[in-house]
Design brief:
By secondary structure, the chain is mainly alpha-helical. The chain has helices at residues 3-29, 33-62, 71-104. Residues 26-53 form a coiled coil.
Length: 105
């Protein structure tokens, strides 16, 4: 697998994680907390896959196998960090929606 394909893996998994996290917020808003949690689990799995790719790149660099820092790599890192932030906020919003639902009962 070439360097660009590896970087694209971070972007794809990060994008999938972000989409799952945003969908989980929608499901929580609708009151479907079981589906919201499943989507968060899916987001976590996507983030784990992206993080594994990132870790492999970091380990290669520590072995002296440095990689070129390109705009695509910066974009991939930005994509991953944004996905992690959206996932964290989604978890908080799910909890808030659950609390609101419990107070309504």
């Amino acid at each position: 697998m070439d360097y660009q394909e590896i970087i694209m893996g971070i972007i794809v998994h990060g994008g999938n994680a972000r989409s799952n996290a945003l969908s989980s917020i929608k499901k929580a808003k609708e009151g479907d907390f079981q589906e919201a949690e499943r989507l968060i689990d899916d987001a976590n799995e996507e983030l784990s896959q992206a993080h594994r790719v990132q870790t492999d790149l970091i380990q290669a660099e520590t072995r002296g196998e440095g990689s070129e820092i390109t705009l695509l790599m910066v974009h991939a890192q930005d994509h991953l960090m944004n996905a992690m932030t959206v996932r964290d906020l989604a978890q908080e919003m799910i909890e808030l929606y659950q609390n609101i639902k419990q107070e309504e009962v």
